[in-house]
Amino acid sequence: MLAPRTGRQALHRAVGTSPSQTVILPGFLVPAAFQTPTRRNFSATTARPSKLGRTPLSIPPGVELAISDLFIKKDMTSYLKTYKRKITVKGPLGQLELEIPDYVNIEHDAAAKRVELSVKDRDQRNQREMWGTTWSYLNNYIMGVSEGHTAVLRLVGIGYRATVEPRPKQEEYPGQQFVCLKLGFSHPVELGLPKGMKASAPQPTRVLLEGIDKEQIMQFAANIRKWRVPEPYKGKGIFINDETIKLKQKKIK
């Protein structure tokens, strides 16, 4: 029984050479199986720098920035060493700390009251992603310690009410306030405020959250919202700030 002739043997047979000789053919005559595959980029556009990351940050009066040296932070999900740098933002309303990767460079001009961010390698996707993300975090921290952040919750529904009251037997730290909600359940919903946040109820259907950490405020607002997520048929629920919902028509059988 004869063995099947391979493609390379067939090529030498067609050209009339021995397998030990090298065959040089034009590119359009070489079969696709013998051509070296070239990697094609998903996008032909060049990598652009971050629009937010390259924008300088201005530091308002009364706010101070302190940048620490590199340190190793242990990561439980990896054996590799992770280098971080800590930025301490201190202002009239409080103090916040931000950890940034080592490839994000920060240039602080104390005389001009401005901060500029950059990355070591703009061709790396993860560095470009963290460029603008670090800028947003730092901007929120600067605004938080100088002016503060707020979030307004609107309760839309019959019988929905909100109050801010103390609960001495349930408090986790002295003076903790609780947001008490009546949302149509058989029991009231009571959520304790994290440390450093303030809440008030200027109206029975309005809750005002105040603090220096925007991420903490919006996370607590999301925890309240999940008890009554806005529904699209009657428009009832808990809305955060300017949140709206598009109403749907009722299902008619």
Automatic annotation (TrEMBL):
Share an example GO biological-process annotation for this protein: translation
What PANTHER family does this protein map onto? 60S/50S RIBOSOMAL PROTEIN L6/L9 (PTHR11655), LARGE RIBOSOMAL SUBUNIT PROTEIN UL6M (PTHR11655:SF14)
The keyword Ion transport is annotated on this UniProt entry: no
Against Pfam families, the record matches this protein to: Ribosomal_L6
Q: What is this protein called?
A: Large ribosomal subunit protein uL6m
Does the keyword field hold Ribonucleoprotein?
A: yes
Q: Which family does it belong to?
A: Belongs to the universal ribosomal protein uL6 family.
The Large ribosomal subunit protein uL6 alpha-beta domain, residue ranges: 85-148, 158-238
One GO cellular component assignment for this chain's record is:
mitochondrial large ribosomal subunit
Q: Subcellular localization, per the record?
A: Mitochondrion
Q: What does this protein do?
A: Component of the mitochondrial ribosome (mitoribosome), a dedicated translation machinery responsible for the synthesis of mitochondrial genome-encoded proteins, including at least some of the essential transmembrane subunits of the mitochondrial respiratory chain. The mitoribosomes are attached to the mitochondrial inner membrane and translation products are cotranslationally integrated into the membrane.
The terms under GO molecular function for this entry are: rRNA binding; structural constituent of ribosome
Q: Which PROSITE patterns match?
A: RIBOSOMAL_L6_1
Q: Which UniProt keywords apply?
A: Mitochondrion, Ribonucleoprotein, Ribosomal protein
